[in-house]
Amino acid sequence: MTPPRDRAPLHRQRAGHRGRARWFDHCLAVLRPVPAATTTKFEAIAMMTGVTSLFARQESAAPRVGFAGIDLAAYPNLVAAITDPSPSAPRDLFETTVRSVLRGLLTDDAG
Question: Within a 10 A sphere around the Cβ of 37, how many other Cβ atoms?
Answer without folding.
Answer: 10
